[in-house]
Amino acid sequence: MKLAAAVLLSIALPASTHAADSGIDAARQRGTLVAGISYPLPAYVAGAKFRTPESPESTLVEDIGKRLRRKLGTPKTDSSNAAQWIKSGRADVVLALIDDNDALRRDAGVAIIPTGYSAGAMAIMRSDTDIKSWEQLKGRTVCLSEGGAYVGKIAAKYGAIEKVQRAPADSLLSLRIGACDAAVHDDTMLNDLLKLPEWKKFSARLPVQSRRTLIFAVRADDATSISYLKQASADWAAGNFWSELKKKWVNNVAFEVYLDQNVPDCH
User: Fold this and answer.
1) Cα end-to-end span (Å), the chain
2) What domain range includes position 81?
3) Radius of gyration of the chain from Cα atoms?
4) Do both 125 and 78 map to the same domain?
5) Which of 241, 213, 257 is nearest to 52 (CA)?
6) d(CA 162, CA 48)
7) Which of 3, 93, 127, 248 is the most buried if burial means most Cβ atoms within 10 Å?
C-alpha cells in the first residue's frame, strides 16, 4: 500500500505544474494520464479470484490511455471534489457519475463531456419475493458492491441493512444463496444479465431510481482535452463499443458467480 501511494503521489504532484496547460497535452508530456475515478481497481494479487468491477469507468480510462499510448494514474475522486482535482492540475481528467442537479454542472470552470453511459439503481430479488416496493426494503438485507454508486444510500433512504461485497459477482452470489433479500446494482448491466436463463428465478425487480450519467470533467478552458474526449465518446457511440462492453460485463459476472457457487440456490 505504501509503495502504491508513493507511485500515485509521484504521478499526481508533477501534474500540478501543468495546471494552466491542456490535461491531454500534459499527459503526453508526462508519459502518464492522471484520470480520477470513483473506484481505482485494487492491485491484482497472484492467486486471487478475478472480479469484474461495478462501473465501466476503469475500462474507459484504459481506452483513453491506449489512444494516447500513455500509462495510467487513477487517484480516487468523486463529483464532490472533481473540480478541485482538475482545476489544480492534480488530475488531467476526472470521471464522475452525476445527476441533472449535480453542482458540477453549475461550475463555470468545468466542462462536462458525457461518455455515453448512464445508469440507475435497480434492485433484483427472487421471483417469489414479498418485496414489492423500495420502502419494503426497511430492515431487509441488501447486497451491494464496493465502489458501487449506491453504497450507503439504500440504508439512508429506506432503512435497509446493507451488506457490501467485494464486487457485483459476490453480491449476486449472496442473493442466489439467500444471504441477502435483494441486490442493488446498475440497471444498464442488470437488465442484460437477467436475460440469461439461469437468472430467471431472480428476475423480480423494483422500479429504477436515481439515474445518473457518467461524464468526463475537465477545465472549461481546456479546448484540447474537450475536443479529444468528445471524439473518443463519439467513437464509442458510433461503433459497438458499448454493446461489447455490456456483453463482456454480463458474461464475466455470470461466470464469476457460476464458478463460486458451491451451494444450491435458496428455496
Assistant:
1) 42
2) 24-39+51-118+211-240
3) 19
4) no
5) 257
6) 25
7) 93
